[in-house]
Amino acid sequence: MSDPKQQEQVFLQRVKSSLDESEAQLDANTLRDLRLARHKALESLHKPRRLWQPVTLAAVAATVAVLAVSLQFMHPKITTTPPGMEDMVLLSAGDDLDLYENLDFYQWLELENHNG
Amino acid sequence: MASRHEDRTTALERFLATHERRAYRMAYVAIGNHDDALDVVQDAMFKLVRRYARREESEWPALFTRIVQNNLADFYRRLAVRRKWRQWFGRTEDDDMNEDPLEQVEQPGTHQPDEQLSQQRAMQSLDAALQKLPLRQQQVFLLRQWEGLDVAATAQAMGVSEGSVKTHYSRAVQSLRSQLEDHW
Fold first, then answer.
1. pLDDT at residue A88, as a whole number
2. Directed axis angle between helix A28-46 and helix B2-31, to 10°?
3. Cβ of B59 under 8 Å from any chain A Cβ?
4. Out of A16, A41, A45, closest to residue B42 by CB
5. pLDDT of chain A, 116 residues: tens digit per residue
6. Would you say residue B105 has pLDDT above 50?
7. Is A31 on the interface with B (CB under 8 A)?
8. Is the Cβ–Cβ distance between A30 and B24 less than 8 Å?
9. Is B45–A31 a contact, with Cβ atoms under 8 angstroms apart?
10. Which residues have C-beta within 8 Å of that of residue B122, sequence separation ≥ 6?
11. Which residue blocks in A25-102 are alpha helix, DSSP H?
């Protein structure tokens, strides 16, 4: 028994035996608890998975909230020009104002050409 | 279809009945109290049944071992967080974990033959020595020495490298020998 390797093997064998023994000698209450735990786990195999569990509900609520906020921000901005501002837009456009001033003349010219 | 379902249930029941005691003992060594150890094992049973019932039976042992190991790691993570909170609120230690591990081992009876008493003491010493090991060393040792897993299977069950398994195992053996060999 002087071989250290052999000593270690003897020690480890004793540890294993002791652990086996402790497993075999579990008290009645522990064995009952384990049996109950096992049966509960096996029962869950027969139960259909419920879709509307609290976690699912929370996830759905969160998704709806995120969606609502996103839509609020993503909605296209409608810019409406107040009545009477069209002329201001025209004036501030910087285009050639003569074009607009002579518009009546151009319309008359077009009509004459068409009739002629 | 129903018959196949029944077969699976029977197979699962047989598997769990065979493995639950050892899983409980490993959890008990790691945690040191009955209720938490039972929670760890029960949760592992639920996870195996709900997630892996359809897997091949041959895969169940490795999966179950892995789940138990993950649950133990989760338990210790939660415990660390709880301790931090307690420290913030002025309590330095978790009172529940301060109890002497020897006192937590349940006594099956008062009148026992000498040999049984001696075995009981040996188990208590072993439990106490195992509980002094860091969790990884302890679980590597139990998986290798008790479950008989090889280095690769132990590494897979614990989610660590094979090199780490070898180091932890060697340190565990050394520590246990120094703690127990004189008294055994």
1. 59
2. 140
3. no
4. A41
5. 568 889 999 999 999 999 999 999 999 999 999 999 999 999 998 877 665 566 777 887 888 888 888 777 766 555 555 656 655 555 555 556 666 667 777 777 778 777 76
6. no
7. yes
8. yes
9. no
10. A18, B184
11. 28-46, 54-74, 86-92, 97-101
Contact at 8 Å (CB) between A52 and A58? no
Q: What is the pLDDT of residues B142-155, one digit of tens each?
A: 999 999 999 999 99
Q: How many CB pairs under 8 A join A and B?
A: 88
* Residue pLDDT, tens place only, B54-81: 999 999 999 999 999 999 999 999 998 9
Label residue B170 by pLDDT band (50, 70, 90): very high
Q: What's the pTM value of the predicted model, to 2 decimals?
A: 0.68
Partners of residue B180 in chain A, C-beta under 8 Å: 11, 15
* B53 within 8 A of A45, measured Cβ to Cβ: yes
A18/B123 touch (CB, cutoff 8 Å), yes or no: yes
Question: Amino acid identity, residue B83?
Answer: R
Question: Testing the interface with B: which of A34, A35, A43 to mutate, by most B Cβ within 10 A?
Answer: A34
From B159, B137, B179, B177, select the one nearest B74 (Cα to Cα): B159
Asked whether this complex has an ipTM greater than 0.85, the answer is no
Residue A34 identity:
L
The upper half-sphere exposure of residue B171, i.e. CA atoms within 13 Å in the direction of its Cβ, equals 15
Residue B143 DSSP label: I
A84: which 2 tokens?
Answer: 């009477």
